[in-house]
């Protein structure tokens, strides 16, 4: 289980998150929704160690991991697919994958990535930055997938992509979850997110305004409230 306890976070002197409590049970999909500027990205950044919280605690498997850098958290099974994807554009697809692989497991890692996204297999020698936006997103997801994470934080991974690619990415998220990874999903396509999620948190101005099971919420009402919803 991943737990955020009373999390306060922000930038410089500006506090964005205020006392956020959030739980991602093992093997579950949790959708984190809210209007622009609510603090969703900030929450994922704080949870993955990219920014240091101002207060509260981050607990992974019963142990506090507060202050741990992102690569250590990922090695412990908590990985983040950030906004902007976090790939190395001037390296090849192969090298992007190898960098994320354990030593001696490179071949296996590349095979695992290609099994999730066969298109990457045709592009191993291509510079990542020259691929289409959808292919770059697949690479970002594949880099996380090869690490077999227990928890994956996903920041708007469908952003700006064609509907067919979004379908492919959601299919992949289903596979990731079926293999046992728990997902914390920030997503502009509210109804799509609620279709796959078990639990939902609504964030408003840095505070949790609702937490519960997806079956308790009216997906259309939430979708109507937020930009990009309903598709
Ligand atoms: N690096 C930063 N420095 C200062 N303020 C920031 C920084 N990043 C975000 N903020 C501010 O923090 C607040 C929350 O932003 P955040 O990106 O977490 O919201 P969000 O819910 O992810 O929004 P969106 O749906 O628009 O991506 C906003 O007011 C934003 O301007």
For the biggest β-sheet, the strand order reads: 6-7-8-3-9-10
Q: What small-molecule ligands were found?
A: adenosine-5'-triphosphate
Q: Radius of gyration, Cα only, in angstroms?
A: 17 Å
CATH superfamily of the largest domain: P-loop containing nucleotide triphosphate hydrolases
**How many structural units, i.e. domains?**
2
Along the chain, the helix and strand elements come as: EEEHEEHEHHHHEHEHEEH
Give the quaternary arrangement of the chains.
single chain
Beta-strand percent range: 25-35%
The CATH topology of the largest domain is what? Rossmann fold
Q: According to CATH, what is the class of the largest domain? A: Alpha Beta
First-residue to last-residue Cα separation: 30 Å
Keywords: Amino-acid transport, ATP-binding, Nucleotide-binding, Transport
GO molecular function: ATP binding
Protein name: ABC transporter ATP-binding protein
Family: Belongs to the ABC transporter superfamily.
Structure notes:
With 231 residues, the chain is an alpha/beta fold. It has 2 domains: 2-77 and 151-225, P-loop containing nucleotide triphosphate hydrolases (Rossmann fold, 3-Layer(aba) Sandwich); 91-148. The chain is 34% helix and 26% strand. It has helices spanning 40-47, 70-75, 93-99, 106-116, 118-121, 133-145, 163-178, 190-196, 219-225, and strands at residues 2-11, 14-24, 29-33, 55-60, 63-64, 78-81, 151-155, 182-186, 199-204, 207-213. The strands form 2 sheets. It has a 6-stranded mixed sheet, with helices on both faces. A hairpin with a 2-residue loop joins β4 (55-60) and β5. α4 packs across α6 (133-145). It is globular and about 45 Å long.
